Amino acid sequence: MRLPLHPILEQSFAVIDREIGEHSVTPAEYEIVRRVIHSTADFEFKHLIQFSPDAIAQATTALQAGIPIVTDVGMVKQGIASMVAQTFNNPVISAVHQVKTALPGKTRTETGILECLDRYPAAIYAIGNAPTALLVLCDRLPAPIQPALVIGAPVGFISVVESKAVLAATPVPQIRVAGRKGGSPVAAAIVNALLGLAWVKVGEGVEG
Question: Which of 70, 175, 207, 208 holds its CA 20 to 30 A away from the CA of 108?
């Protein structure tokens, strides 16, 4: 059972299906890639999005169970709010808004991520803006209780590629965007696609 799509979104997906060309992603991975391409109009993402083994299955199971979703910034939170409300009503927490002041030598986003890791260690973490937030998260890995999924999609030029390389070296379930590209709309699109996949699994009576 799929969620109904707005006609413009449905038409956009049809255009992407016609134009995407050759790719090697699985059907579930394609749902994520297509959402990201829709949010960016950039077909290069079909080569940039990378998945650890079983990341999608673990993430959709966690979403069905109501696991919290922690975002680095408010824009990612805003980008998933509607889909969360239509599906499982997971708690959504913006890390940067969890603290009023930063720890010495850290940004508010880094400090907020550390706060959230203490409070919600098994959450899904969606990083779409701050590479430093991704780095501080990875510094805590491996952990006795690790996140259900880490989405590594910060964008920019400083520490972005490096933060994604650090994430790739961790054992945590992950979906990451290679290179400098990414951003809050990309991270939100990945979460929204996962929510859609989890909803389909419920409708089909599939567990896990």
Answer: 175
pLDDT in tens, 154-193: 999 999 999 999 999 999 999 999 999 999 999 999 999 9
CATH number, domain of 134, equals 3.40.50.10230
What is the residue range of 112's domain?
A: 48-203
Q: 118-134: per-residue pLDDT in tens? A: 999 999 999 999 999 99
Residues designated as active site:
38
Q: What is the total count of domains within the chain?
A: 1
Q: Which token pair is 186?
A: 């990309």
Q: Does residue 158 lie in a domain region?
A: yes
Handedness of CA 73, 127, 55, 32 (dihedral sign): positive
